[in-house]
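Tutorial handout. Part one gives the primary structure; part two gives the three-dimensional structure as tokens.
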Amino acid sequence: MIKFIHTADVHLGLKFNKVSFPRELAINRRFELWSSFEGLVGYCKEKGIDFLLIAGDLFEASYFTLGDIKRLRDLFKEARDINILIAAGNHDYLNDKSLYRKVEWSDNVHIFDTGAIGKKEFPELDTVIYGYSWDSLEIRENFLFEGFEVDNSFSNKILLIHGDLARSSNYLPLDLDLLNKLDLDYIALGHIHKPIIFSDKMAYCGSLEPLDFGELGERGFIEGLIGDSGTKVRFVPFSKRKFLHERLKLNENMNYRDIVGAIKAIQGEKDRDLFRIELEGYISQDIEFKSLLKSLEGDFYYVEFIDKTTPDYDLEALEREYKDSLIGEFIRAMKLKGLDEPVVKKALYFGLDALLRGRVDS
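Part two.
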């Protein structure tokens, strides 16, 4: 029996330049990527893992430094009992200038080469591992499996590859049917940041840490074993934080304190995770979102709003102010249709928003 951990898309060194959260939090997330990965290596040592499989995008080549790669080298050297195998992806691709080539790796580290699928044999563990590293930012065609044969003299056979199951992709298009037909015990995929377990024999592990609000929910790694009864895998949540997107429906009867209370009542680890809250419904024009955020500072590690609310207008005041204009006529006409009907009220508010906005803009 062998035990393995499958990770990918760690993106060490990422600077989070295009995120919606503040720079201070972005810097902290950059440190947390390192902390999480170092924690994963520690987990491997604690659990007696035989193989750490890294399926590409271990780091961001654009921001990674020589000091960073030496830090990785030393981390891996301290984990000598773990066989660490790396297939470079599109963010850490392997060429003559690659930082992978700038240091001398300990004997327990193997980085697969470019050009064709290579293999690394571990006779003492009755295991052979195949892998392939990118040599450029994009790979639009895939001929890697033409003539590829699996060595059945080993009991445990694994493939490590970074690619996309969309056939028209610019990121090494992979054929799911072809992969399923390969006589392998496990295929460790990288590139897609959402964990997807197709079967016990093939999975995307997803990113180790979520990078932005496009990566909602749990993130972590795949832990597996291959034994006499076949392959068994499980997803292990491991990220320090999660990104969460919640929706909250407001109504015209909610005052400032009601809204703050409703936001605070949202479920989740608010002191740890990053929340994006989509506000819908009607809200008083007197309520400012900046003020709401200020009131929530002590309750959330980070929270941001998407405003999809409709202003709750004082119809009587507007009708008096604009009684001799199109706005006044519009309010009276919509009242006759019956404002108890949600569709009518919504149409009224959308119309008022357009009319009043046009009045201000002019």
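Part three, for discussion. The chain has two domains: 2-237, 243-361. Residues 6 and 202 are 11 Å apart (CA to CA).
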